[in-house]
Fold this protein.
Amino acid sequence: MKALSPIPFQGTARALSVGGLNEVADKLALHPPAIWTVLSVETSGCGFLPDRRPRILYERHIFHRLTHGEYDDGEISDSIAGGYGAPGAHQYDRLRLAMAQNRMAALQSCSWGIGQIMGENYAQAGFADVEQMVAAMSESEDRQLAAMGDFLIHFRLNVCLQTQEWASFARGYNGANYAINRYDMRLKDAYRKYSAGPLPDLSVRAAQLYLTYLGFHPGALDGVARTRTLAALADFRTQQGLANTGPIDQDTIAQLSSALGD
C-alpha cells in the first residue's frame, strides 16, 4: 500500500503502549482505571484523527487573550468562548486561519492529544516551547499521555484522582464551568466502569487505530475485538495476501505498521 502523503501536523501517530500507560500510572501513583477515566471523558480515549493528526480543539477566546484582541472577528478570535464548529478536521481549518495571523498564539490556543492539554500549558506539560509540545503530540499517544501526566503533577491534580475527588479534579482540569457539561459526574461514571473492568486490550486497540489510518472500519477504538474489528482485520489481511489466522498480537501490529510505511 502506498504510504500516506505527509500533511501539516501528521506524524508517526503511534498508539498507546502498555509501557507508556504503566510509566505514567506509576509516576502519578494511580491505577490504570483512573487514567482511562480521564482519557475516555476528554477524547473518547483516542489522541489522533483518522488522518494521523493529533486530536485538537481550537479555542478562540484563548487566541483573543494571547493576541490582546488584535484579530477579533468572531470566528478565530473572540472574547467569548464557543463557536467551535464540527470536531475533527474542521478544527485544523480554524487553526490554519489563526496561524496565518500569529503562529505561536494559534498553537497555544488549541488543546492537544489524548489528554487535551492546552498548548499554552506547554511548560507545565514538560516542554521548552509549544513547537516541541506539538511535535510530541504528533509522534505518539505515549508522549501525549506523558505530557498529561506532567501537567497533572504540576497542578497536583493526580492527588484528586487518587482520592476520587471528581469535582476538585474537574475544576482544575476542565475549568470553573465544569458542571455545565456534568464533567465531574461523567468522570465518576467512567471510573465506575473501568474499575469494574475489563480495561482496553492495548494490542487490539492499536490494531483498531492502525486499521482506521489505513481506511478500514474496525468500529469503536475500545480495545475489544468485536465483529467489526475482526472483519476489518480480515479485509486487511486479504489485501496484503496474509493468512487470516491467529490472534491480534505484536506480529499483527508490525504488519499494520509496515503497511503504513512505518
